[in-house]
Write a structure and sequence with these properties.
By secondary structure, the protein is an alpha+beta fold. It is built from 6 helices and 9 strands.
Length: 254
């Protein structure tokens, strides 16, 4: 049988920061409770005296991050467009990853598509694709990461033209996309951390094992500048684009 290489999706939101949230995150491995979430500049940390704000030096320079307990952690919300995917138009699938290359690629793609479409991300026909290659760092083993692209049968001009038409039709039908984005923004701001302890247990089991022997550990090491996580992702993506026609993948898919 053919292997699954792509999934047709649409985004719920026009704001790329609502579709993809990425932070340096540390969990309590015993309880699954989030302990510290930062962006490379500042962090929120659960302490005995309550929630506190501290500078965030990134995992490479943080004494609390020893043993791979703190990693880049991203969550991408998408609607899967398939006959058996359900009919809830506000429901979404969450792709979770601690892969630096997956996060940086998704972040850059969302920014590019947002700019090209005039901010109409919610109506662009997109697909999630699994890409892979081997590198010297992986010793010839296949390395995978997730990419977000236009559908295979869509040109850029056709996709943007169709997205504009669909967005305007939804607006004329009474759909207030800006209000939906704002409601989601306010909802995310209500909690101290996005993950609950119940969700955190599953996340820790999959992405935060006691040791991290994977060959891509060096690739996840943050660069010295720029300071914030989004800037690091963008910098690495831009450098990679100059080295190869395809976005390089030096990580195993998480």
């Amino acid at each position: 049988s053919a292997k699954l290489r792509s999934i047709p999706v649409r985004l719920l939101f026009d704001d790329p920061d609502l579709s993809l949230r990425a932070n340096y995150t540390m969990f309590d491995r015993n309880t699954g409770r989030p302990l510290c979430v930062g962006n490379g500049e500042t962090c929120k940390r659960a302490t005995l005296s309550g929630m506190q704000s501290y500078p965030c030096p990134a995992p490479a320079s943080c004494p609390l991050a020893e043993g791979a307990s703190c990693k880049p952690y991203g969550r991408l919300n998408v609607r899967i467009e398939a006959q058996d995917a359900g009919s809830d138009e506000l429901g979404s699938f969450v792709l979770r990853t601690t892969g630096f290359n997956s996060i940086r690629t998704l972040s850059a793609r969302l920014r590019y598509f947002h700019a090209l479409s005039g901010g109409r991300l919610s109506t662009l026909p997109l697909e999630l694709r699994l890409r892979g290659k081997s590198t010297r760092q992986s010793h010839g083993a296949p390395i995978y990461y997730v990419d977000l692209t236009l559908r295979g049968d869509s040109s850029l001009a056709d996709a943007i033209r169709g997205a504009k038409k669909a967005w305007e039709e939804s607006r004329d039908a009474g759909v207030d996309q800006a209000a939906l984005d704002e409601a989601a923004r306010q909802g995310l701001a209500l909690g101290e951390f996005e993950e609950s302890e119940e969700e955190g247990v599953a996340v820790v089991e999959e992405f935060y094992p006691p040791s991290d022997p994977s060959p891509d550990a060096m690739d996840r090491t943050p660069q010295a500048a720029p300071a914030n996580l989004r800037g690091k992702l963008a910098l690495k993506f831009d450098k990679a684009q100059g080295r190869a026609s395809q976005i390089p993948a030096e990580e195993r898919q998480d």
